[in-house]
Prior knowledge:
CATH architecture of the largest domain: Alpha-Beta Complex
Oligomer: single chain
Shape: globular
Amino acid sequence: xxxxxxxxxxxxxxxxxxxxxxxxxxxxxxxxxxxxxxxxxxxxxxxxxxxxxxxxxxxxxxxxxxxxxxxxxxxxxxxxxxxxxxxxxxxxxxxxxxxxxxxxxxxxxxxxxxxxxxxxxxxxxxxxxxxxxxxxxxxxxxxxxxxxxxxxxxxxxxxxxxxxxxxxxxxxxxxxxxxxxxxxxxxxxxxxxxxxxxxxxxxxxxxxxxxxxxxxxxxxxxxxxxxxxxxxxxxxxxxxxxxxxxxxxxxxxxxxxxxxxxxxxxxxxxxxxxxxxxxxxxxxxxxxxxxxxxxxxxxxxxxxxxxxxxxxxxxxxxxxxxxxxxxxxxxxxxxxxxxxxxxxxxxxxxxxxxxxxxxxxxxxxxxxxxxxxxxxxxxxxxxxxxxxxxxxxxxxxxxxxxx
Length: 403
């Protein structure tokens, strides 16, 4: 692993996650009560032995860079050549911001070449999953691949306009790659399923540098791995797929792209099963995060001595619950007053729900107060008056004080 350098792409604008990205970069958004989205990819790096990581930042990166410096830089040993280093956009090769994810790597090729790796791992900072990159690297080296793309079977309807879709032969060699097609080509043996790219790539370093330079000067390029680099790589006959599987069941592994408000909400809700899809309750592959000195959560009986209806939820440290919390994720230090009801919600840290307020199917950003007696999630017109954003699936997002 000392001959491998990782590039973690964390600079995207995150427009599909607005208003959650009004103040923070997408990878810095809270997730699962106590994590930030980027914690999952960085945990995979550390657990896999990938400890030479450039994190490429750009938009609204202050909280993300602070989180990396506080939580992740102490996790590696700089004296032995390890690093997890946030790299802000520096316009080293031009006076423009990153034009695409491939251009982001191209503009930092100087740092990569200086690190002199044999292989480069390219990752995204907005996915929720557990994965041992060592296994993917082993296959990449065994096949003498120029590039290996992690792939996962997904429903055709889910992949349409969302993911790159691949066709492979019996040797797992990629024979076609379509980036976010309207009508994805299904697997030969299943018309309902296609093989989607997870946005995880391993490149032979010299090959990557060559492809990035060629793409940068090619007419009509979109400076994108899925639209430019990977399709061009197929011509070499050395582009392969690594099919991501759960090591315990050998079934397709758990992976979620949380790039939209609805996918973000749904991934949080998936944590609430008796066994969460990603397996947060398992300690064999820990997801590391920022520590906290907050007290354990406290759950109280009502004034009449009755127990509050609190069930099926994740309640983080520092929370105080006097009301009802059902099928919800509460971040650090939330306060639910007596008579308040929170149902199917995702609350970021410091949210206060005052007495008698009732809310459902809502994402609430940090430190907001839901006023006494307020009803959220019952009347669309009233929710709009309160300043809520309504998702395609009808969920709500509150990011500003209630009007």
